[in-house]
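Async update (no meeting this week)

Hi team, since we skipped the sync, here's where things stand on the single-chain job. The sequence we agreed to prioritize is pasted below, unchanged from the tracker. I ran it this morning and attached the output directly underneath so nobody has to dig for it. Comments welcome in thread, and please keep replies under the output.
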Amino acid sequence: MVIKLANRLPQKEYVSGTEADVIDKPLQLQLTSGETLTFAIKDVQLNEIESLGEQIDVPSFERLVVASGLKKSALSGLYKNEDGLRTSYALVASGTYLVIVSLAEIQPARYALQVESVWQLAS
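Output:
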């Protein structure tokens, strides 16, 4: 599976608040094509980013990691964003787009969600 960057976020989409605030809020991401991709985290399945490395070719995965600003923890081997938040991915719009997100509880009952990048899938 080949991927290409579907948008260049001028700034990363960031949402914080209660768990319900974060997972229920519809995200609207402007894509390079001019389309707007709209979804809520509650409507998609989040998967560990490490498992994506088994599903796409190595050069595409490495490009995704670099473009999304992810770092692999030497201690745990897990990918995290610039703020140290755990990173996941979701397939959106019937599997047409791959959205890289970081979601974590940053304080008791306070969550943060950050969209790192959006990729278009091509076979």
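Quick observations from my side:
Helices lie at 19-24, 49-52, 58-67.
The mean pLDDT is 90.
Reply here if anything looks off.
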